[in-house]
Amino acid sequence: MDSNPFKEIFKDSPQSSIEDPSLYYEKSLGTTILALVYDSGVMLAADSRTSSGSFIANRVADKIWPITKNIFACKAGTASDTQFLLQTTKNYMSQFAIEYNDKPPVKVAARILQQYQYEYKDYLSAALIVAGVDNLEGPCVYSVGMGGTMLKQDIALNGSGSGYIYGYVDSNFKKNMTRQEAKEFLKKCVSLAMYRDNSSGGVVRILDITKDGFSREYYPFDQIEFPKMK
């Protein structure tokens, strides 16, 4: 018996003769997300534009999603897919966290997302970055890509805007940054991506996670410094 739920959903569709139902999803892929490990924790950053084709559906979307008190994720891809993946993972982790006094391993959250990404790789359009601080690995960042790839990295970036800033990241990222250095670096990365990528924009959101907790802040559009072009 075929256990794939997507075929059941699309069985009465006029396009049911086409094998890949994901062709009919409304894609909203524009975004810029990053996360890095610094000297005393991890830091995540994202823009806030949600687009549907050439239409900007939301200028101030929050793309940094809470999973537990010590684990957060940045999301890029189709909004409905990323929301389903992260909410499902959050539900699993809320039960698992009981065994770890509300501080479960970051790797477990990344592994759950990896399994869903792999099992439904033909139907989901989502790229995720999971970051947090736990008692086993300390500060850590995992990139969970389309198809189920999972990599532990010192810095991870994704989304349509990330292609514009790989060179800048490779040239300027360094390990064991201070909190202020990490914040300024991420702010610069997102602003550069927003400057070049039409699908990235809005405000810059930054979330800082340490062993003592987390804090959020954002920079509105009028406080973002863009490159001065002559």
Question: What is the element layout, followed by pairings?
Answer:
Layout (H helix, E strand, L loop, with lengths): L4 H5 L23 E6 L2 E6 L3 E3 L2 E4 L5 E3 L4 E7 L1 H18 L9 H14 L6 E9 L3 E7 L5 E4 L1 E4 L7 H7 L6 H18 L7 E7 L2 E7 L11
Antiparallel strand pairs: 1-2, 1-10, 2-11, 3-4, 5-6, 6-7, 7-8, 8-9, 11-12
Defining traits:
single chain; 230 residues; alpha+beta; Glutamine Phosphoribosylpyrophosphate, subunit 1, domain 1; five-stranded antiparallel sheet; 5 helices; 12 strands; 27% helix
Quick synopsis:
With 230 residues, the protein is an alpha+beta fold. It is built from 5 helices and 12 strands.
Description:
This protein is an alpha+beta fold. The chain has one domain: Aminohydrolase, N-terminal nucleophile (Ntn) domain (Glutamine Phosphoribosylpyrophosphate, subunit 1, domain 1). The chain is 27% helix and 29% strand. The protein contains 5 helices and 12 strands. The strands form 3 sheets. The protein has a 5-stranded antiparallel β-sheet, covered by helices on one side. β8 (138-144) and β9 (150-153) form a beta hairpin. Mean pLDDT is 87; it is low at 13-18 and 20-25.
Which fold name is given in CATH as the topology? Glutamine Phosphoribosylpyrophosphate, subunit 1, domain 1
What number of domains? 1
Unreliable runs, pLDDT <50, ≥5 residues?
A: 13-18, 20-25
Number of helices: 5
Relevant CATH superfamily: Aminohydrolase, N-terminal nucleophile (Ntn) domain
Widest sheet, order of strands: 10-1-2-11-12
- The separation of the N and C termini measures 64 Å
**CATH hierarchy class name:** Alpha Beta
Shape: globular
Q: How many strands, what sense, and barrel or not for the largest sheet?
A: 5 strands, antiparallel
Global mean pLDDT: 87
Instruction: Calculate Rg over CA atoms.
Output: 18 Å
CATH hierarchy: architecture: 4-Layer Sandwich
Class per helix and strand makeup:
alpha+beta
Share in helix? 25-40%
- Beta-strand residue percentage: 25-35%
- Compressed to H and E, one letter per element, the order equals HEEEEEEHHEEEEHHEE
